[in-house]
Amino acid sequence: MAAYIFRRLISVVPISLGVLFVTFLLFRVIGGNPAYRIAGKNATPEKIAQITRDRGYDQPYFLNFKDFPQKLFQAQFPRLVRSILRGDFGESITNKMRVSELLRAGLLPSLCVTTPLFLLDLCLAVGVALLAAYYRGTWIDRSLVVGAVMAMSVSEIVYIMIAQYWLASEWRLFPVWGFEGPQYVVLPVLIGVVAGVGGGVRFYRTVMLDEIYQDYVRTARAKGVSPPRVLFHHVLRNALIPILTNVIVALPFLYTGSILLESFFGIPGLGRLLVTSISNGDEDIIFAETFIGAILFVLANTATDIAYTWADPRIRLK
Fold first, then answer.
1. Which of 110, 154, 204, 232 would staple 270 via disulfide (CB 3.0–4.6 Å)?
2. For the whole model, what pTM was predicted?
3. Distance of alpha carbon 152 from its chain centroid, rounded?
4. What single-letter DSSP state applies at residue 214?
5. Residue limits of CATH 1.10.3720.10 in the chain
6. Cα Rg for the chain, rounded, in angstroms?
7. What number does CATH give the domain 106-311?
8. How many helices (DSSP H) and strands (DSSP E) are in the chain?
9. Residues 211-243 pLDDT 10s
10. For residue 256, which of 278, 241, 281 has the smallest C-alpha distance?
11. Which residues are within 8 A (CB) of 265 and not within 5 positions of it... i.e. 6 or more apart?
12. Dist. CA 231–CA 216, nearest whole Å
């Protein structure tokens, strides 16, 4: 297992750099010279030319063959890679703050929304899926499935608009904008759970049904094992592998935040920061978030494989 973990950790670097390379293509090569966005709408050609020279945007994108071999790697992408690997994510062109400071400031608001949303959604979806699978074919199962399909068929934006108008604006049960305390994340979390639990119920119900028809479940019932023990000790335990896959792979997205919820509720998290950075062309923030997100995704996949060995001792990592 140690050799496997080492290989996966080594793969973090090329994968994250590959994601950074694609992002660089989209926002620097295709998107054009960032000096125009930095200088502003009313900037003079002289100002744009100065920014281009000072920031090195006049250099080739990938390799500098003009001054070969002394300055071969003085091109834009190699310099970006060196800066990020040193932990220097650059400076925001919008508010002139260091990107690392913006990421640290946005991490807590994002986690305050995504963490309780993720845990509530997981517990509710698994619990409802167990109940629906156990009472499969009955009116309980059909009602839960219909409710799940209806919940997942409505856009999250619709939930946001209805909740903001009635619960926040009309009835004043929740604040509608900002992040000044725990009460500001209650409504976004509730909306996220309602919008996402339907898909979770459908997925986990299918997983539970695959296990509930197995011979070991029929044997346990024949021996007189109580229904709760059959569900939680036998069915849920043997369904852990697909559940772990779905859960652990979703963990990196706790870092990136919820783009819609943060944008509509004015929560200064990383999701809202990413949206505003894309609209403003603030590429240093985009590069940093995508690079860190790629690293977390690879680590989450490695953790998933390790969790498989815990859930099923027959699995060996090589």
1. 110
2. 0.87
3. 19
4. S
5. 106-311
6. 25
7. 1.10.3720.10
8. 17, 0
9. 888 888 888 888 888 877 888 888 888 888 888
10. 278
11. 160, 164, 176, 177, 178, 184, 187, 188
12. 12
